[in-house]
Every structure is written in C-alpha cells, then in structure tokens.
Amino acid sequence: MKARRNRVATGRVAILLLGCALLAAASIAAADDPRIITPTPSTFETLSRFTELLEAFQKNYVQPSRVNAEWYTTAALRAFVRSIDADADLLTADEVVSTNGPDAAPATIGLSFVIHGGIPTVVCPRDGTPAQRAGLLAGDEIIAIDNSSTLLVRHSEVDRLLGGPPDSEVSLRMVNPASTEVRDLHLHRAARGSFPLPALRLLDNGVAYYRLAEFSSNTVDNLRTAMTLAKSEHVTGLILDLRNNPGGSFLLVQPTASLFLPNGSEIASLEYATPGLHAAFLSEDGEKVTTRIVLLVNGGTAAEAEAFAAALQDNHRAQVIGSKTFGRGFLAASVKLANGSVLVIPTAYYMRPSKQIIQETGLVPDIIVDLPRATERSLASIGFGAFDWKNNKATVLATDLPLAKAFSVLTK
User: Fold this and answer.
1) Which of 173, 191, 209 is the last residue of a domain?
2) For residue 92, is it within any domain?
3) Are 263 and 285 a contacting pair, CB within 8 Å?
4) Number of H helices, E strands in the chain
5) pTM summary value
6) 251 and 107 co-located in one domain
7) Residue (of 84, 71, 85, 89) closest to 15 by Cα position
8) Same domain, residue pair 158 and 230
9) Angle 267-347-257 (CA atoms, 0-180°, nearest 5)?
C-alpha cells in the first residue's frame, strides 16, 4: 500500500509537470483562434524536456524500479489532453476493451452527464430510468459515488462506477447548484434499453402532444407513425416535448427535421477547425407535417436535440417555449493510436442555420417560461409526458407552466 502511494505521488508530480507546461504551450498556440490548437516548436521542445526529465529520474532516483515509464507517460499525456478539453480523453487499449467488450456493465442508472469544472455534472436523466425517477436535473453535481470522491475523475471512470449488475445499488452524493443543498441518493441500476415507447396524446381543441425523449435508432419511425395518426385525427397543433432530451445520433437530426421542413431547408452544419471546412445538411424529400408546432425545451435539452430545435426555430417552423437549453453541440471522434490506445476528441461543432455555434451557447426560447427548480424536479421524476390530461387537466395546466403556455399558443 505504501509503495502504491509513493507511485501515485510520483506520478502526480510527473503529470503536473507535463500538464502545466503543455497547457501553457497549447494556450500560446491557440491564442488567435481558441478552436484551433496547432503543435509548435515549443510544444515539441516541452515533450523533449519531459523525456529528459523522465530519463534523469530513472537514472538518479534512489528507487528507479518504481518509475514505470509507460504508465507515467500515458497518465501525463492524458492530463495534457484533458487540460485542453474536458470532453477529450486518452483510453488505453485495455480500457477500450473493458468499455465496449462483453465485460462492460450490463446495467446503469440512465444518466447523461459531462465533466464540468472537474466534477461530473448532470445533463439530464433518460426517460424510464432510475436517474429520472430520482428527479435529477441539469446542473446537479455528483461529488461522490459509493463514498468515493469524483473530483477530477474521468468520464469513463464515472461510467464504470455508475454501471454494474441489474438491480444492484449505487450511492450518489449530489449537490444542487441553485441552493448548495446536498442529497444522498441510493439508486438501483436497471438494464440498458428498458425505456418506454413514445405515443401521440390527443389533448383538446385539435392539439396533440408527443414526447421526443432522445434521438435513437427508432426515433424517426416512431415519429412518422405518430404523425400519420395525428393527420388521421385532424390535429391542428402539435406540442413536441424535448425537455430532458440528451440527444443521441447526429445522423438522425436530418431525417427527423426533414419531416417538418420544406425541401432544401438548411438543418445544421458541422464546423471543423480548418477555416472554411464544413458540411451542411439540408431537408430531404418526403411526406411533410404542415401543422403548427411548438417545441418545449429546458436545461436538459442538449446536443442533437438542440440542433433539431434550432433548425425548426431558425427556419421559423416552430415556436420554442421553456428555458435555455444546455449548450452542448459537437461531433466527437475516436482516433486509434499505434500502441492500441484511443484518443477521444471533439472534431467539429454543430452550427445552426443562423450560423451560431450551439456549444456553450445553447438555445434561447422564443417564449421563456422558467419553472421553480423544485417543481421541475417533481415533474421530471414523474416523467414529462406522464400527466393525466383526461382526469387532471386543471392540475396539469396549473403545474406544468411550459406545457400550459404551449397549449395556449396553439389554441389561440
């Protein structure tokens, strides 16, 4: 145990040296454009200095057998990568196998999160999951998992800690950023993919409601089926609920938005680091939904859900109601290195038709309707779309103010 502590302490010194030095070099290189980090002679000089330092340590240290050059180099390079971008990481070959292989955890709590300020921060829970039933909301911070601190922990490590056998318990210590209240939660993991299927709900006065909870493999087909039903029911107004939608596959944004936009309308583009390099996505041919639309969004609406909402908002196809979205929009790629390790890194930003980048900016609704956090937590724990319109319409409208506003707009 003592040897392991010495090894970790020595590793931290090496990581700190390389991380700080390379971060400074990267900051200089990126001064003109924060999106572009170009290696410079000073960067390579710093790498040489690290090699020199490591060799000197191995030759002169009183216990050279403790200096595992490969382990410390990987850790230092990972610190360098993460110091540039919190969404980037360096996975060893073994970590890649354990993450994607047959030994990967079969169950989890269904949480989308990011590392913000060195702390795992909730984007939103997925529908029908333990995280949703616990009422987790965007911005909630996870400061401990099973009594282990999560400060400066990697995204992949949080995934590992949250995963486990079905119905096994995981303990979370959460901080509400709005009130600094600390909550201890004990959740039971559930098998992946056990999410409820969405269904079109007919309200009153020709208005229908549809819960668009994520952009997964069945999203487009399910939505087409719902829109066919809406047409047969002579729906004149449609509420699409994107609250606590963490996104999913960017490839599904184009066919989903194409259901509502005229042919040739710009939906989104990918903006890469190289100036002028981008890929634009336009609305495709096919049957169109022409009814009036309102989109509901909140702080848990993120990534591909934001790109979809921005496409309809910028093309003046839908009014957006709710609160500002999360602001997470980039395409990530996995680059395999020669030694089998994998560099996970953002490669392009999502840009909306109005030529604004979604990352860290988010989407501002046309009509802002903010809910008290306690009320939103209560609604989220039950599930957006789980309301009883037939028997409790008055209560629904008095509690879910964004939904009430959307209904009002469509029935005017």
Assistant:
1) 191
2) no
3) yes
4) 12, 19
5) 0.87
6) no
7) 71
8) no
9) 15
